[in-house]
Fold this protein.
Amino acid sequence: MNGRGGHLNKKKKPLTGSQKTYHLMMLPGMLFLLVFSYVPMAGIVMAFQDYVPSKGIFGSPFAGLEHFRYMLELPDISQVIKNTLVIALGKIILGTLAAISFSILLNEIRIKYIKKWVQTIVYLPHFLSWVVLASVVVNLFNLDGSVNQFLAGIGLERINFLGSSRWFQPLIIGTDVWKEFGYNSVVYLAAITSIDPGLHEAAAMDGATWWKRVLHITIPGMMPIILLMAAMNLTSILSAGFDQIYNLYTPLVYQTGDILDTYVYRIGLIGRQYSFATAVGLFKSLIAMILMVGANEAAKRFADRKIF
């Protein structure tokens, strides 16, 4: 016992050889995170300056909250935020429903080699970049693409999916769901396999149909994971997919296709309004941080699990 504080003196145990190895394995990732995530945060000060590249951060005049006021007064910013929320929510909701439905159906396949073959096919698009997939989408949905040729073949009018403000958002949401639902279903499939098979057997013996067993056993058993994944997806609600939209949109669909990330890119890098673009990016990061904290509390309350 320590005479002053009345507490035991606890000595830290030295790291063993294997623990040192694990720490060394983490070192490259930590250095990568430090260099590319934390060091660039020094550039946040540009949001409060009238940044001039020739003068640098230390020589540019201070502007305070002027860029934030200007951002909130712009008529375009509300439409950009609306586009971001609509596209992000559409991806999260439809992507979650597709992943849950696919995992339930995939779990019903009893022939192992067919199950693995189906898994491989639907997982593959996740590992392809939108730089590659954008050309596939363009070839499918442009005016002379396969989709419009099919529509014309059955007597319907061709649709300008890539140049129509009406159809661009559904195209973005639908293609993203197609790309990601197979990979996202991995977590839900693992949740299904953890459900006691005896529950299904007992329900079947009592005359429960497949639909009733899914509604009253499978989905309730998956609910903690569904709530946890929904809370985690909430943190990315202002990130509607820069790489996908950048490779597919044109000025014709800026009205419904422009999101915060592409807006910052056009204003900051192309328009060279560095301070204003930094202010918009910082605004997005603050909202994302609030959502992340809220999602963590929601996951703790409803799923009894914490994200961090």
Q: What stands out?
A: Residues 199 and 205 are 10 Å apart (CA to CA).
